[in-house]
Amino acid sequence: MIMENAFTDFKDNLYAPVWYSCEDFEVLTEVLEAIYPNTCTENKKDPRQFYNITCSFDIETTSFFEKEGRQITPKQWAKLLEKTQETYKKRACMWVWMFGINGVVFYGRTWSQFTSFCRTLSIALKLSPEKILIVYVHNLSFEMQWIKGLFDWENVFATDLREPLYALTKEGICFKCSYRMTDKSLAELGNSLIKYPIKKMVGDLDYDKLRHSQTRITAAEEGYCRNDVKVVMSYIQEQIETEKYIHYIPLTKTGYIRRYIRDLCFTHPSGDPKKTKNKKWHYWQLMKEMQLTVNTYDMLLDATQGGFCHGNPLYYNVHLENLVSMDLSSAYPGHMVGCYYPMSTPKKRTLTSTDQVKMYLNNYCCLFTIDLFNVQPKFKGDSYIQVANCHILEGARINNGRVYSADHLSITITELDFLIMRDWYTWDTDKTVIYNFYTMIRGYLPYDLIIGILKLFEDKTSLKGVEGREADYMRSKEMLNSCYGMCLTKIWHKEIVLDEYKDWHFKDGGQTKEEAIDKYNAAFQRFLFFAWGTWVTAHTRRTITKAIQEIGENDYVYSDTDSIKFLNPEKHLKMFERLNEDIRNRIRRTLKFYKIPEDKMYAKTIKGKDKTLGIFEIDGEYKEFKMLGAKRYMYTDDAGIHITVAGLSKKLGGEYIKRTFKDPYKAFCDKLCVPALETGKLTHTYIDESFTGFLRDYDGKEGSYTELSAVHLAPCEFNMSISNVYERFVRDFFNQDGSF
Questions:
Q1: 402 with 383: CB under 8 angstroms?
Q2: Partners of 137 in the beta sheet?
Q3: What is the pLDDT of residue 5?
Q4: In whole angstroms, what is the distance from residue 341 CA to residue 110 CA?
Q5: What is each CA distance from 689 to 146, 247, 684, 710, in whole angstroms?
Q6: Quick check: 635 and 625 in contact, CB under 8 A?
Q7: Spatial CB neighbours of 674, under 8 Å, sequence gap ≥ 6
Q8: Which residues 6+ apart lie within 8 Å of 572 measured at CB?
């Protein structure tokens, strides 16, 4: 024994400022003895056993370019690329790996050390596919590309090619993705820790230095590597202490809210088994009334859209002053509480008259495909119909990915989309064709779902800033934000496998879409209806587009899902007060229907201020603003200049523009090019063949490397250039007199 009770206390292990070599078998033995055999838990629904211990795995790699024995760093290549187009091979190698067990961190320098370490774990803990050690990896898709050839895999579950959620080896080690579970970067994860705070270190590791398995590791680099593993272990330990068992931790972020709502739906508050059984039977009967076919499921997928994110072409590339941004707080949860939703199986209708169609549109949830001819803009301040959603599109003028006008288009929509389109466009009504017209009965979402959302909103609001309740606040906030996502979990997707040759591909055969839909319809544990998710975003778009239209073509500037930025705020704030009262009234009707006290739509902050679910609030006052299209804008507030550009780091991109240009707003245009070394953006190249070689590190020391597969990372530049189609649209947008 190194010391009595060594390595048993997670907190002591976590904060020890050391790491151990993977070949320090004395320490490894003590660590394993401390967790075996009393930490293996059984899952009642799963005959397998799982060690209830937090483990994490991470690697550090070097990417470089090679030509005729010459090796250069990514930064050197980026600078060289400005002068020449010489071709270099992309290469990468792992130079250190870290494996954390119950707060203790081990490290190694080669893959042979890693596989030997894993075999030791498997033998000592008697692991197998039935007795499993779960190991969390932050962004498993990266590490999996490096280790896929090192193991024989029992089971790999992926949501897309090269996107595994978990991977179980035949030796009983299951790698799970903590990034997909949290949807947070490692730095954000560290900032969210409550009980076991560990920060990700920043700036202590220069990724442009060439390293290999014999390269020295400085004390600062050691701390950086060690903390990356400890951040993940800290988070998982907090989850274990909350969830009780490691196998209760959901695979994805929406898993938490699904379980929370499922428990509300299926468990009676009294705990009475009979009443609980009655609740389950109630939901079984309810879900039997909400069934799908392959056709209606495909139509729902076609009709599902995200938030409205776009800008007024009148203000493209225009430097504006004095704007206000209004934010629709908790937009999706608010609309889930305050709006109607499909509450029956889609029923196909035969249409015989225009009046019949109007009746259905006014009284039912409708899902249908419509062909429109001679589509022209009625509201010219923006365009609603997305090009990507059109089945047919002919003779169209395209406004940054949206249809401004068209000779003919075909699209699958809901009745809410139709109402928006009717407000924003005109078309030849006598040529309109509607087919595959389905209706569903309108109703409120189930009582338990409404109660769950209201409770999460209350907790998020009342617990913010309360000392000692930080974990509860974060949990309620994240679950509230996930309410919408849980409704849109796909019923079927193609099965993805990692074959015996370690190649990713879609599996032939497997479960068909028909079989998946049948299983979904028959599931006794189902408490959600896929169509609800389609209507959540549609209701939100309806609220946002109403506000945009009332602001008007001349003052509306930009919208991003749940916020609107506009000029002359003094003219429009009363309109938002009226819209807010409409939102309150909608929620009041839901609460009255379920006999829920009206005050549940409000929650008090730590300062005693009332906040209302789902209403518009002032989110920012901008001294200056400039927009270059969807997800491309710059603004100035009291805190300084900020940028939001999809694909470009807010921090690094903003700093480059402010540092480089005397007039940032003039520089922020379609000709802006951010150099590769300033973007913080990396190009990922997957290398699937094995390779070996020698690398000279930054100290001049040569070392060998061998990789079965790898990921090469290199900085890439960012060009703000817009498409020729949009450029031509903006140029032709205005009439000769300057109007539009």
A1: yes
A2: 177
A3: 52
A4: 56
A5: 11, 35, 16, 8
A6: yes
A7: 648, 653, 656, 657, 717, 718, 719, 720
A8: 550, 551, 555, 566
| Residues paired with residue 715 on neighbouring β-strands, in sequence order | 682
CA gap 305, 715 in Å, rounded: 32
Q: Tell me, letter by letter, the H, E, C secondary structure of 319-378.
A: CEEEEEEEEECCHHHHHHHHCCEECCCCEECCCCCHHHHHHHHHHCEEEEEEEEEEEEEC
Residue 28: closest CA among 105, 83, 86, 81: 105
CB 62 within 8 A of CB 211: yes
| Distance of alpha carbon 386 from alpha carbon 309, whole angstroms | 11
Contact at 8 Å (CB) between 230 and 238? no
User: At residue 408, what is the residue type?
Assistant: H
Note the pTM of the prediction, 2 decimals: 0.92
Cα–Cα distance, 385 to 424 (Å, whole number): 9
How far is Cα 287 from Cα 527, in angstroms, rounded to an integer? Answer: 7
C-alpha distance across the termini of the chain, in Å: 82
Q: How many C-beta atoms lie closer than 10 Å to residue 452's C-beta?
A: 24
Q: For residue 669, what are the contacts with CB-CB under 8 A and spacing of at least 6?
A: 317, 628, 720
Which residues in the chain come in under a pLDDT of 50?
A: 1-4, 736-740
Nearest to 189 by CA among 241, 134, 137: 137
Q: Provide the pLDDT for residue 364.
A: 98
- pLDDT at 90 (0 to 100): 94
How many Cα atoms are found within 13 Å in the side-chain-facing hemisphere of 211? 21
User: Number of H helices and number of E strands within the chain?
Assistant: 24, 37
Q: Residue 640: what residue type? A: G
Residue with tokens 């701390």: 223
DSSP 62-81: EEEEEETTEEE-HHHHHHHH
Q: Residue 673, by phi and psi: left (phi above 0), alpha (psi -120 to 50) or beta?
A: beta
Contact between residue 335 and residue 538 where contact means Cβ atoms under 8 Å apart? no
Find out whether 223 and 201 touch, Cβ atoms under 8 Å.
Answer: yes
pLDDT at 738: 41
